[in-house]
């Protein structure tokens, strides 16, 4: 059906039914075979675990496409960043081939190197992004985003300086994946509903690792007994830090103009306006199959762009963390904040947390044997820092959001420093109240 002959009743029906399907898929975890997570994560996990040979074939198809595309379109010539990223994609594909054929040097075959990057990062991300993108059709295609945008405006705008629609981004990353949240942000930014400043606040402020990954961090640091305390403190600290960084340079000085203004409730009920806005979007939408296909294509493009980069950039980060003093130097910059936080070994913790810039999971590996206070802070800070080289930075670079690597590193440092101070204060309080006993 085209937008010209879609009735209000049909549009309302589509908005309610498809949005409910989207909400269930993204926000309602359920258990299949001892694993409790959301629907599209189950689908991706099934591919990765039960159909691994097929998943590997699909992953290599994605990587080959991702590596070939810059050469076919000539986009690698545009600027230095594109040239470097294209070279890294080629390196990522070569490394994946060496790993799968068992020909990789022993140095990178240690279990915390290529096996970790390929099996625990590249493979799940390669499957989650296209599946998640397709499921996004239900959340983004039929008016729910616009309806929520109008309803959430009074909360999002004053606190985080972003439109109401960004509330969906924020929740999607916590329950789903930063890669899927960035896909939403990029889609809405390209539609002209986010300014550059808003897109950057959302990309660097809400698009953190999923709840499923936070479980892995909590298990590694032996904190599952305090899961609820950990999850909610993570959520609150991440969003508190975002409210602060939105008001500091470099984000505060970014371009805040956009082609489509926020819908405001002037002299009418906000609930009625929200419903009208959602229904009008549903009326103008294409058929479900077309929307699914467009989203799947977006997901394939993004997965193809990020997966080879994850392998190459991730390996570089892991090698730097293990064999060079790069993170020791970064650690010295973070030392004043861990010292201020009253942690027992502030220098050790500062160095461990700085490795979170390479890979969000590294601090948990490096500080797994620490005291309870340090472990709790270590579990929160990399999640709240959001930015890391092994996957999140390549994801942002694969979008149209104009954010350079130096700016991302600066935002990472500001977020990490603030996260350490807030996480330490909260952990000390929790310890004093006996919540961390």
TrEMBL record:
<feature type="transmembrane region" description="Helical">
    <location>
        <begin position="302"/>
        <end position="323"/>
    </location>
</feature>
<feature type="transmembrane region" description="Helical">
    <location>
        <begin position="409"/>
        <end position="436"/>
    </location>
</feature>
<feature type="transmembrane region" description="Helical">
    <location>
        <begin position="229"/>
        <end position="248"/>
    </location>
</feature>
<dbReference type="InterPro" id="IPR011642">
    <property type="entry name" value="Gate_dom"/>
</dbReference>
<keyword id="KW-0812">Transmembrane</keyword>
<feature type="transmembrane region" description="Helical">
    <location>
        <begin position="198"/>
        <end position="217"/>
    </location>
</feature>
<feature type="transmembrane region" description="Helical">
    <location>
        <begin position="121"/>
        <end position="145"/>
    </location>
</feature>
<feature type="transmembrane region" description="Helical">
    <location>
        <begin position="53"/>
        <end position="72"/>
    </location>
</feature>
<protein>
    <submittedName>
        <fullName>Uncharacterized protein conserved in bacteria</fullName>
    </submittedName>
</protein>
<feature type="domain" description="Nucleoside transporter/FeoB GTPase Gate">
    <location>
        <begin position="123"/>
        <end position="222"/>
    </location>
</feature>
<dbReference type="Pfam" id="PF07670">
    <property type="entry name" value="Gate"/>
</dbReference>
<feature type="transmembrane region" description="Helical">
    <location>
        <begin position="12"/>
        <end position="32"/>
    </location>
</feature>
<feature type="transmembrane region" description="Helical">
    <location>
        <begin position="379"/>
        <end position="403"/>
    </location>
</feature>
<feature type="transmembrane region" description="Helical">
    <location>
        <begin position="165"/>
        <end position="186"/>
    </location>
</feature>
<keyword id="KW-1133">Transmembrane helix</keyword>
<feature type="transmembrane region" description="Helical">
    <location>
        <begin position="84"/>
        <end position="109"/>
    </location>
</feature>
<keyword id="KW-0472">Membrane</keyword>
């Amino acid at each position: 059906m085209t937008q010209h002959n879609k009735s209000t009743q049909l549009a309302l029906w589509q908005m309610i039914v498809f949005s409910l399907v989207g909400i269930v898929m993204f926000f309602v975890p359920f258990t299949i075979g001892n694993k409790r997570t959301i629907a599209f994560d189950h689908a991706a996990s099934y591919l990765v675990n039960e159909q691994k040979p097929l998943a590997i074939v699909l992953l290599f198809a994605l990587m080959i496409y991702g590596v070939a595309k810059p050469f076919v379109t000539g986009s690698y010539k545009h600027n230095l960043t594109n040239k470097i990223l294209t070279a890294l994609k080629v390196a990522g594909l070569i490394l994946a081939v060496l790993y799968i054929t068992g020909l990789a040097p022993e140095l990178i075959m240690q279990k915390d190197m290529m096996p970790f990057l390929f099996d625990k990062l590249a493979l799940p991300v390669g499957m989650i992004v296209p599946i998640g993108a397709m499921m996004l059709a239900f959340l983004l295609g039929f008016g729910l985003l616009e309806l929520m945008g109008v309803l959430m405006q009074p909360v999002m705008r004053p606190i985080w300086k972003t439109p109401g629609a960004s509330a969906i981004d924020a929740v999607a990353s916590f329950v789903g994946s930063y890669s899927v949240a960035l896909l939403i942000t990029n889609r809405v930014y390209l539609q002209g509903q986010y300014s550059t400043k808003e897109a950057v606040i959302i990309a660097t402020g809400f698009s953190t690792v999923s709840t499923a990954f936070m479980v892995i961090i909590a298990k590694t640091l032996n904190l599952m007994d305090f899961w609820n305390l950990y999850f909610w403190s993570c959520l609150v600290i991440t969003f508190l830090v975002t409210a602060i960084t939105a008001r500091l340079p470099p984000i505060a000085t970014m371009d805040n103009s956009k082609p489509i203004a926020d819908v405001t409730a002037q002299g009418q009920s906000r609930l009625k306006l929200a419903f009208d806005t959602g229904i009008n979007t549903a009326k103008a939408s294409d058929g479900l199959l077309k929307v699914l296909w467009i989203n799947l294509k977006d997901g394939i493009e993004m997965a193809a762009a990020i997966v080879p980069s994850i392998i190459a950039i991730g390996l570089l980060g892991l090698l730097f963390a293990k064999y060079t003093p790069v993170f020791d130097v970064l650690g010295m910059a973070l030392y004043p904040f861990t010292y201020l936080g009253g942690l027992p070994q502030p220098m050790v913790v500062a160095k461990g947390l700085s490795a979170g810039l390479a890979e969000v999971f590294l601090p948990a590996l490096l500080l797994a044997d620490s005291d309870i206070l340090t472990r709790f802070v270590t579990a929160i800070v990399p999640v709240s820092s959001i930015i890391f080289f092994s996957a999140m930075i390549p994801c942002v670079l694969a979008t149209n959001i104009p954010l350079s690597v130096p700016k991302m590193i600066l935002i990472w440092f500001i977020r990490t420093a603030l996260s350490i101070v807030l996480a330490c204060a909260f952990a000390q309080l929790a310890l004093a109240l006996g919540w961390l006993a």
